[in-house]
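Bit of a strange request maybe. I'm writing a small parser for structure token strings and I need a real example to test against, not something I typed by hand. Could someone generate the tokens for this chain?
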Amino acid sequence: MSADSGRRPVHAALLAFGLLVHVLFQVLPAKTAVWDTGNGRDFASYYYAYKVADHGGDPYDNAQLDRMASSEHTRPTVQPYFYPPPFLATMAWVPAFKLPIAYRGMLVLNELALASCLVVLWAGFSVPMGAIGVLLAIWSPIPDNLKMGQANLLALLPALLGLWTARIDRRWAPWVGGVLLGTAAMFKMSPALFLLYWAMRREWKPVLAAIGTAVGLSLASLVLVPLTTQIEFYTVVLPGFARGDYHGLSIPISLSANHSIPDIFNTWWPGPSKTALSGKALLASRIVTVVLLTWWFARSAVLVRSTVASEPVGVARALGALTILMVTLPTYTYEHHLVFLLLPVATLIALVFERAPAAFASGASTPSRVWVFSSVIAIFFVAWPLDVLNATMHAVPTALAPLVRESKFMGLIAMFFLLL
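Reply from user aminoacidic:
Good idea to test on real output. This should exercise your parser:
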């Protein structure tokens, strides 16, 4: 996917354009939203979880978070904290600041993490600068993640670094890559799905390193989160995710901004409450999960056996498709979660750049044209802003509204198959 020298000015111009759009239409509006909001939005969950734990409390006790927030007169309630115990180490800096100031600091931290992720895409996965520029210009989940103060990029960065490092031709590389990915999984559980890539390739060193890192970080976090509380996370909080129970999260599964696989089946077979999946929806989601993972294994195995196995493009395609599954398999896939898709979206954009000239040249095959056209449509529907989606959903005839509502989900699934 690397650009040749003749295209470098074009790619540099696209990157400059993307950076300009990012600053003017993403960072500045996000800055205004963050500076004007004193309650910290989603960031408040991490903020108060750390402060409660630092005071000897239980960060998974929602009532304790609410009491501390009320005592500081910032907000009456706080969203539940349900990240692994070691993640709290990333918030060790927050007690020095009041919530509104720390929330602003999180925006800066997210920008640094985003820039680092994009550098890894360029250096580690050979995504050309032009594709990164287009990604920056169109990817609406980026400002949403910034405004919410979410921690997705803090987990994505070590995951991408680990997946890149493990491919370096050095004896130590698989171990270091595994340590980085294990760290990402202890910041947020979902990156652990990337272990399937190494397992498929029978690369066991990074897998063992990741598992060892998870254990080591859990032990290290005992200084902040005692053993009984950690057991509570792994036996009470974490198992609830599979049922759609996100530790008391009050946001309904059926919200139009949810783009997950379970949400599709929740629409057909609603659960006993707005935050719980029915038995039918759970079963259907698990069947689809097995089918998609099986397809991913089969197609990715072909990629790693082919001539592109050692090339960044083949790796990016396989890992990009797996990232889409990582994001859509949980019960909730909100807009800020889609920021995890930097690798698959950038990879697909780069492939479109590469294939479009030949696909639309004289005598090109119809399948090539269909692939390019389908890729552009899929990217468009996943990338279009949520407020535009909602406005369109209310403007179209009632019969078409469900299709508009699930357009991001359909685009995600299309991207999964197009990458493979």
